[in-house]
C-alpha cells in the first residue's frame, strides 16, 4: 500500500473511530487512583478514545460504545440514565449493589475475593483450621459467599454478630477464643478508626492473626491481605470488555496484588514470606482451580 493510500486510510479510521468505540469513564473526582486507573486502560491494548468526566459533569448527550463508572455514586447516576449502553461499574461493594440489575450492567466488586483471603490465611498460618468472621446486620448478607470459599480451602467458618448498640469486645473475644485467624469482612461499621485499636489489641493479645480487609489496614496492623490496585482494576476491566457480555453479572477483579506486614509476622513468630513469590503462588493456585 503506498504512502498516500495509507494516509487516507488512517484519516478514515480516525474519523469513524470515536463514533463506534469511545469509552465514557465517569469518576467521582480526579485523584491519584483515577489517574492510575485511566493510565492502565490506555496501556498496551487501548479500548479506543477515552472520554473522562467527573460525576458533576456527567451527561449522556450521545451514546458511547461502553461506559465505565468508578464508585457507588457514579453507579447511582448511571442507573438514572435512560440508556442501554453496556456499563461496567467498578469500586462498588456488595452493600451498594442494586437489587434489580439491568441487563446492560456488570459490577466488579472492590473488596477482596473470599477464596483469595482464605488461601492467603492458609499460606501465612499453615496450621489454620478455623476462620473467624465478625459481622453486623450490614454485612450478614456477605456470609453465604464465604461458604464455598471455605469448602474450597478445607477450612471451617466461625461467625459472631456484633450488635452495635453493645461494645464490640464481647463478640470479638468470643470469636477469637473459638477461631485461629480473624478474616475481615467488607464492613466499615467494624473496620474503622474508632474500632481498629480495640480489634488489634484484643486479637494480638490472644496471638490471633488478622487478614484484611484492605491494604491500608495492613499498614495499620493486620498481617496481610489480597487487594486489587488501580492497575489491577484497569487490566481486569479491559479483559472483561473483551469477553462476551454477561447481563447483570457481579464478579471480582481477575488481577490482584498482595501486601504483608513483616513486622506483625515477626511479632507473632510467623515466617516472613517473600511477597512476590507468595503472590505468584496464589495466582498459580487460582489458575488451576
Automatic annotation (TrEMBL):
Source domain of life: Bacteria
Gene3D superfamilies documented for this protein: 3.40.50.2300
Matching PANTHER family: ABC TRANSPORTER, SUBSTRATE-BINDING LIPOPROTEIN (PTHR35271:SF1), ABC TRANSPORTER, SUBSTRATE-BINDING LIPOPROTEIN-RELATED (PTHR35271)
Protein name as it appears in the record: ABC transporter substrate-binding protein
Lineage start: Bacteria, Pseudomonadati, Pseudomonadota, Gammaproteobacteria, Pseudomonadales
Amino acid at each position: 500500500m503506498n504512502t498516500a493510500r495509507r494516509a487516507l486510510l488512517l484519516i478514515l479510521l480516525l474519523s469513524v473511530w470515536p463514533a463506534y468505540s469511545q469509552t465514557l469513564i465517569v469518576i467521582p473526582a480526579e485523584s491519584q487512583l483515577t489517574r492510575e486507573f485511566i493510565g492502565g486502560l490506555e496501556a498496551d491494548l487501548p479500548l479506543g478514545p477515552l472520554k473522562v468526566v467527573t460525576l458533576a459533569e456527567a451527561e449522556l448527550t450521545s451514546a458511547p460504545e461502553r461506559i465505565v463508572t468508578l464508585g457507588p455514586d457514579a453507579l447511582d447516576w448511571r442507573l438514572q440514565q435512560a440508556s442501554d449502553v453496556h456499563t461496567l461499574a467498578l469500586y462498588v461493594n456488595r452493600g451498594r449493589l442494586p437489587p434489580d440489575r439491568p441487563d446492560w450492567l456488570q459490577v466488579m466488586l472492590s473488596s477482596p475475593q473470599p477464596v483469595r483471603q482464605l488461601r492467603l490465611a492458609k499460606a501465612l498460618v499453615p496450621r489454620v483450621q478455623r476462620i473467624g468472621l465478625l459481622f453486623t446486620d450490614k454485612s450478614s448478607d456477605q456470609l453465604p459467599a464465604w461458604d464455598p470459599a471455605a469448602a474450597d480451602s478445607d477450612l471451617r467458618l466461625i461467625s459472631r454478630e456484633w450488635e452495635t448498640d453493645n461494645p464490640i469486645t464481647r463478640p470479638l473475644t468470643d470469636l477469637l477464643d473459638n477461631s485461629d485467624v480473624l478474616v475481615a469482612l467488607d464492613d466499615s461499621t467494624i473496620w474503622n478508626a474508632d474500632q481498629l485499636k480495640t480489634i488489634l489489641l484484643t486479637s494480638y493479645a490472644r496471638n490471633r492473626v488478622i487478614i484484611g480487609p484492605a491494604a491500608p489496614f495492613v499498614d495499620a496492623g493486620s498481617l496481610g491481605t489480597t487487594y486489587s490496585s488501580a492497575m489491577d482494576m484497569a487490566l481486569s476491566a479491559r479483559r472483561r470488555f473483551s469477553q462476551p457480555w454477561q447481563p447483570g453479572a457481579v464478579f471480582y477483579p481477575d488481577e490482584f496484588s498482595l501486601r504483608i506486614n513483616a513486622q506483625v509476622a515477626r511479632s507473632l513468630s510467623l515466617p516472613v514470606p517473600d511477597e512476590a513469590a507468595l503472590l505468584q503462588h496464589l495466582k498459580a493456585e487460582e489458575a488451576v482451580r
